[in-house]
Amino acid sequence: MTTVMESIIKKTMENLQKNNIKPFYVEKKEDVLPLIRTLVNEGDTVSNGGSVTLKQTGVMDELKSGRYNYLDRSREGITPEEIEQVYRDTYSADVYFASSNAITESGYLYNVDGNSNRVSAILYGPKSVVLVCGYNKIVKDLDEAVKRVKTCAAPPNTVRLNCETYCAEKGSCVSMNIDGGEYCDGCHSKDRICCNFVISAQQRHIDRIKVIIVGEELGY
After folding, report:
1. Which CATH number does 3-138+199-214 carry?
2. Fewest C-beta in 10 Å: which of 11, 77, 139, 196?
């Protein structure tokens, strides 16, 4: 990692703290789990949003380890009705795990969602929210956050989820070809995953949201 990037991470963490979001830094993905275990208690009710980063860092395996009361929306044989109940029960969880689509240097979290179970849980409900993010999620400002989602995050996620969207086929959002459009412009596919756009700025509940920045490129 360059000295410039180290400086950007330091600045971002300072601004997250100013916004009442608790920042942490670990050098390697292997360092994530030891830190996670200090932020959650055995027996806690835990849940998560969809995240490649959580899989890469071993957090998903940790949640399924039996140490916690895990609200598992992906267990074998689960019905659509049971998945919906997991979404609702998540609002009463002790800890909610996810990643963030982007983090600005000014300490804002930018997240875009389709069903919005992830962004809604980040905003309200679970007592604690832990977001695990590779340093590649850090961007200069909100304009860069929007661009990041449209070019780096949404396209590979639509491919991963087998969504039939413009970005899955072309590799970037159709709105990138429109001059003067709005940042929430996009395709009108039934599989569109960018339906709600959320910016988390200064928080009223101090340190409820925690961000673990990892000194590696992780996730989308």
Report:
1. 3.40.50.10420
2. 77
